[in-house]
Design goal:
The structure is a homodimer of 430-residue chains.
Chain A (H helix, E strand, L loop, with lengths): L5 H14 L1 H12 L9 H13 L3 E5 L3 H5 L16 E6 L8 E6 L20 E2 L2 E3 L3 H20 L2 E3 L3 E6 L7 H8 L7 E3 L7 E5 L1 E10 L14 H21 L15 E8 L9 E10 L5 H13 L1 H4 L2 H4 L3 E9 L2 E2 L5 H14 L5 E4 L5 H6 L5 E4 L13 E3 H19 L1 E4 L2
Parallel strand pairs in A: 3-7, 3-8, 8-16, 9-15
Antiparallel strand pairs in A: 1-2, 2-7, 4-5, 5-17, 6-18, 9-14, 9-16, 10-12, 10-13, 11-12
Helix pairs in contact in A: 1-13, 2-5, 5-13, 11-13
Amino acid sequence: MAAHSNAELRQLVHQWMELHREEGTRFLQSLVRIPSTQGNEREAQVLIADQLRELELDVDWWEPDGETLEAHPFFYSPRSRFAGSPNVVGVLKGTGGGRSIILNGHVDVVPEGNRDQWRDDPYSGKVEGGKLFGRGATDMKGGNVSLLLAVGALRGLGLKLKGDVIVQSVVEEESGGAGTLAAIVKGYQADAALIPEPTNLRIFPKQQGSMWFRIEVKGRSAHGGTRYEGVSAIEKSIAVVQHIRELEERRNAGISDPLYAHNPIPIPINIGVIQGGNWPSSVPDTVKLEGRMGVAPEERLEEAKEEMLRWMERLREKDSWFEAHPPAVEWFGARWVPGSVDPEHELMQVLARQYREIRQEEPVIEASPWGTDGGLLTQLGGTPCIVFGPGITQVAHYPNEHIVLDHVFEAAEMIALTLIHWCGLNGMEG
Amino acid sequence: MAAHSNAELRQLVHQWMELHREEGTRFLQSLVRIPSTQGNEREAQVLIADQLRELELDVDWWEPDGETLEAHPFFYSPRSRFAGSPNVVGVLKGTGGGRSIILNGHVDVVPEGNRDQWRDDPYSGKVEGGKLFGRGATDMKGGNVSLLLAVGALRGLGLKLKGDVIVQSVVEEESGGAGTLAAIVKGYQADAALIPEPTNLRIFPKQQGSMWFRIEVKGRSAHGGTRYEGVSAIEKSIAVVQHIRELEERRNAGISDPLYAHNPIPIPINIGVIQGGNWPSSVPDTVKLEGRMGVAPEERLEEAKEEMLRWMERLREKDSWFEAHPPAVEWFGARWVPGSVDPEHELMQVLARQYREIRQEEPVIEASPWGTDGGLLTQLGGTPCIVFGPGITQVAHYPNEHIVLDHVFEAAEMIALTLIHWCGLNGMEG
């Protein structure tokens, strides 16, 4: 066993990555070719569990128990049965005396949407111009492969760490985080965590949470020819939309965190769905609005809900119609817990250092505009979590989703070195 | 055979109505209990055809031929097949030498809407406080029963007319008039026509036409967490709704017809349906608006269309987004041809006289705020048509729709006497 300088370790890790580019690319291709949408994650998890076993990690494989989870206050999912949707966790035990880390990535992908908008099959895994294409390439199978490559490099180079490395491949991130919740409930915890969601290699110590809401706006029906005898729920819903815009302005005016310096609306309230009326010649008596309310990293979901409800009550000050017909607000479907880690947290420092040394430039450190399972790990799991990954934020959930392969390997190198410095190097075999 | 004075005839008709109140009410109840929404008119038509046969009219029963109608420039319907949706016409031949009349009523009703807003079942036919409740009671089964009672009184009293009375129970009025069009195409014509749509016993020599439009408003999708990277089609649709409000103001400012003196918006533009987006966490890229554009009695449908299209082009002056993404306007589904009959037309005078004599007050003569099949009869069918009926304009298309039973019988008396004076009395049997 010999001591190694940082420069030597960087060199070793980089060489290992160069030698495993083809293998890593093929593995990502295999993962992307499995359409692991909600309920169809099993096949992809088999691939990942096999890989973890090959790296000689202790593998834990289980289907989350919907009945137990449903009773949990942080459980949000459109489903309560997870048969065929297993979580996979691989543990690389350290030699002791070091800090542990959870490396978490989700295996579920959002549906491909309209196939006509894809140039190739949505699950092609096609490689072209240094990019790999397909649903999930960026969000977030590319990031997951970075994690596996990082652990692979440690194993391949015979580097033994002091702290434990816990690799989690979870289901259900895209629908509210029940997979990560199940891992927390099972007892997985560490001194810190990293999730390689698509951040364009930016580092996010904080992340926006979000909740879905539904608002029913009332009108009063009438024949369209005497529309002045009715009250249009469409016109009333315009007032509600504008009222929500004002709430968004107020909430964002209160945010001064420098991590949001380049974000025009740190915690947006998006109205994604509008639906009302059923007959062109009738004044519509109901309009339904559905949307997503962003929640600040340090805010609690319940506080944000309260603020929305109080704000909606003030509609009556603008229009007495709402006095007798207050819009009904309902919280439904998915919710993502926000998360906040001190930007000076030591895992942040360690990662930023590797970034600087490898890229020879300052990393961008920001607050993420969307939630990840990191909020659950930080708030509930007692494991401060940061987000950093190779995927491209702008193409997540889009047709022709892709990832730059160079970034997958670059991130893998940074993560491997971060593991070494965070968990501590015990020595090198052989 | 004996000559009868007007006063005697009024007395005879009134007595006959008094004797047939229970029977007439029961018949209306039976009609209202049949939910004869579009495509489901058959059962109600069976009831009416049976009644016409009982009154010894020659009954014509046919399902309109969609293929033939589709080629007709006045055909507007969301469907092209009318299987199960028959028209019924009953002809009471006159003895000759008199003026003929078409009595036209539609049997289709609009859907009941949100059942929670109904105190009773929407098709209860419940009688309470002199009112009969249920979808279609006012629009326009009550009026249809007035027609049948008027003819029934003539038959029951043995009064023989010179001119023909043609009773038409048509389908599809609520969706563009294909039922009445089919009757016109089949050759039915008369010297004048009366439609007992719900006018609150006001007399309408003129009527608003209308057309359905659909507007597709474009946005650009993005993730809700970075909604500022997209363009919300919901926000753009608000601009379109407000732009349409301005067009409505301009069009109505130009209307000075004294028949509209008491109407706050003579030719309204109603937006009845809004629908956009499909995911709470996404910025919606499309919103569809559907509505009804009122057309002035003397205006041509094509003129109104042109004005709307020109106006929509001006959206770009308010927001450059619409320059590159002009909302697409489509005319679809139902259209009602406007109609205008001289307020001094002799049928107007005959009816107004009966009204005065029975009610001992001046009738209200106005322009109707909505279209009826009368526009088709007047403009296409060569049969000047006026509108007058017992239903309550304000409750048509509403929850808890109802009609005042007294008005059904009062209208029936006025119509019976109008028939006598318009068609001419040949004599009395027995």
